[in-house]
Write the structure tokens for this entry.
Amino acid sequence: MHEYSIVMSLMEQCEALALEHQAKGIEQVELKIGILSGVEPALLSQAFETFKLESICHNAKLIINVQPLVLQCRDCKTQSQVDERTVICPACFGNNTMVIDGEDMMLMQLVLDT
Ligand SMILES: [Zn+2]
């Protein structure tokens, strides 16, 4: 499963950061998941709960912020946030848009136990 490999690399990232800051553990992991990132938040948190037991994250709480799609229209210059997967600008109904946010998954914050 796609989410498992994401969690594996997330854990590696957490371990590296904890080591760097000489932390004993990790209390909280906060992620941003774009609705177009292809990552399913429910599956990701399930994978996290499974893998964390054997990692530095074993006491960590996972917080997932779902990032809606943000479109910038090249025609009317409106920036809009939309909840569905679309390329249509809600202001002028044109499709000359580009995606500003909502496509990626990012580690937003780690709370370390030092
Ligand atoms: Zn527009």
Summary: The mean pLDDT is 94. The two ends are 33 Å apart (CA to CA). The chain has one domain: 2-68+101-113. The helical segments are 2-20, 41-52.
